[in-house]
Specification:
This protein has 115 residues and is of the alpha+beta class. The longest helix is centred in the middle third of the chain and has 21 residues. A hairpin with a 4-residue loop joins β4 and β5. It has a five-stranded antiparallel β-sheet with strand order 2-1-5-4-3, sandwiched between helices. It has three helices and five strands, in the order αββαβββα.
Length: 115
């Protein structure tokens, strides 16, 4: 799984970090520079839970992805079917569509490894 994440990040200079996190926030694999992967995995899990609560309150369907952009970077979370999710950290100049194209190429491969 680490090799897949490495290839994902190598696909764009603007994609700095990728991480596979289980549904309970456990980091299963990551690639990129992060001091405490377990802490970031927990943050990503909390972010997903909060967004799910918002979506439920608005009576909308399941989350397809979560995209948050700041002045210096962006975080995108993609569900890996029912197995967990893929978190990507990218530059602020990399638009959501480009992150999405790169990530969805790997989600099925990651899911197959998790099954």
């Amino acid at each position: 799984m680490n090799e897949l994440l490495e290839r994902l990040c190598e696909g764009s200079d603007e994609l700095w970090l990728s991480m596979v996190v289980s549904t309970d926030g456990l980091v299963l694999a990551h690639h990129g520079n992060v001091r405490d992967p377990d802490r970031f995995g927990a943050y990503f899990a909390e972010l997903k839970v909060v967004c799910e609560k918002i979506i439920a309150q608005l009576d909308l369907e399941e989350i397809e992805e979560i995209y948050i952009r700041s002045k210096s970077g962006a975080v995108t979370l993609f569900p890996i079917f029912d197995k967990g999710y893929l978190a990507c950290l990218s530059s602020a100049s990399m638009n959501a569509g480009k992150v999405q194209i790169h990530a969805w190429q790997y989600i099925r491969k990651i899911h197959a490894l998790m099954s």
